[in-house]
Design a protein that fits this description.
Helices cover 35% and strands 25% of the residues. The chain contains 13 helices and 19 strands. α4 packs across α12.
């Protein structure tokens, strides 16, 4: 194996975090990589790699994030800090078996982790969805590729998509696959030349089905609100570590579709409620403007637009053991993007939309990371909500 190093032109937090994320998708010949605080990127290659070719790919990737014409506006709307112990919650959760790893980026929650998940979900339904009369809807976990194309997901986040396929509708193909599996067990090679064309993917976000299912609607003013929870998938390559990033995760969302004033005011009220939640639970966090991790050559343009317009805000919870914070909730304004794409109108114009999302497993991980595994020591507001929304079953020993 060989290694090469590149000194990056910038080493600020935004630039470094984007580079760390994107490097996992630079080349299959990259075995590992490391980015120092001083901005030196070290890349280790496989034994068969063409170093020149890999360097060209890395240089091309890095060029996306160095465009000096577009600055990333930083605005922190809220910050709450507290002294927290450095605690390896991931290892402790695995040892206590409240979390089970069942494949890279796939986890099972049980025990107190399951109760905390239930509390989060119930709190959103009771305090965000119910007061505004949001319709609760249930969506499939798979989504048409044609729908993702209309949302521009493929042009912004192609690296995320987990596609869905099946064995070809051919008796010989099916029989051979079954016989091979019976004789030698399943292995990836069995899928070569046996799979059908792809027309579905696992949904990478909870709200896409909402817009798709409202195709052609003419809404009464001011619009409508919806809430849903979906098992979403995003392929994250080497970024799949602990519960900070998962390949399969649950996203609870509240979505507003309608007149701009209704959508904007609803989003603002949800932002206020989210910050009150953070205060009640005494969470170490920030609420700040942000941008998506676009995996495109026009990254700088898209990211800068999101930040300048404050189209995306994130509630980021600190993970002391990992020496960083993670986005656990996001507040997003889409303008008329989805109204136009799916011909949804209100008051004779394309409907606007916004959503607020909760990454349930991330919330669970962040709470354990900040407050430990002993529920009796958690902040009073958090314990009160646990008793209200997810009381422990008698005799469980939790």
């Amino acid at each position: 194996m060989s290694t090469f190093c590149i000194s990056l032109p910038r080493c600020d937090v935004d630039y470094s975090s984007q580079v760390r994320y994107a490097m996992s998708f630079a080349s299959e010949d990259i075995v590992s990589y490391d980015l120092t605080e001083s901005g030196v990127l070290s890349v280790q290659l496989s034994a068969t790699a063409d170093e020149k070719l890999v360097r060209e790919k890395v240089d091309r990737l890095l060029e996306r994030y160095t465009d000096p014409r577009f600055g990333l506006k930083e605005v922190v709307h809220f910050k709450q800090s507290r002294d927290l112990p450095v605690f390896d919650a991931w290892t402790e959760l695995l040892q206590r078996q409240w979390v089970a790893l069942v494949g890279q980026g796939h986890v099972v929650l049980r025990g107190l982790a399951s109760r905390l998940f239930r509390c989060l979900n119930a709190k959103v339904l009771a305090e965000f969805a119910a007061p505004i009369g949001a319709d609760e809807e249930f969506y499939p976990s798979t989504i048409l590729c044609a729908t993702l194309d209309r949302t521009a997901h493929f042009t912004s986040f192609p690296e995320h998509v987990d596609f869905v396929s099946h064995l070809r509708e051919d008796v010989e193909v099916l029989a051979k696959f079954s016989q091979e599996a019976r004789g030698h067990g399943w292995r990836p090679e069995l899928h070569k030349d046996t799979m059908s064309q792809v027309d579905l993917a696992i949904s990478p976000s909870a709200c896409y089905h909402c817009y798709e299912s409202m195709q052609g609607w003419r809404l009464a003013k001011p619009g409508r609100a919806v809430t849903t929870i979906v098992d979403c998938h995003r392929y994250e390559a080497g970024n799949l570590t602990t519960m900070s990033r998962l390949r399969s995760f649950h996203m609870r969302e509240v979505v507003w579709v309608g007149h701009p004033e209704f959508v904007k005011s609803s989003r603002s009220e949800a932002d206020r409620l989210l910050l009150q939640w953070a205060k009640d639970w005494e969470i170490d966090c920030t609420f700040e403007n942000a941008n998506d991790m676009f995996f495109t050559d026009d990254y700088a343009v898209k990211a800068s637009f999101q930040r300048q317009q404050e189209a995306k805000r994130e509630l980021r919870l600190r993970i002391p053991f990992e020496k960083r914070s993670i986005s656990c909730s996001s507040s997003n304004f889409h303008a008329a993007t989805f109204g136009k794409a799916f011909d949804i109108q209100v008051d004779g114009r394309n409907a606007t939309s916004a959503c607020m999302g909760w990454g349930c497993e991330r919330w669970v991980y962040a709470i354990f990371s900040q407050f430990g595994l002993d529920e009796s020591t958690w902040p009073e507001g958090l314990r009160r909500d646990m008793d209200r929304w997810a009381p422990a079953a008698k005799g469980t020993g939790e």
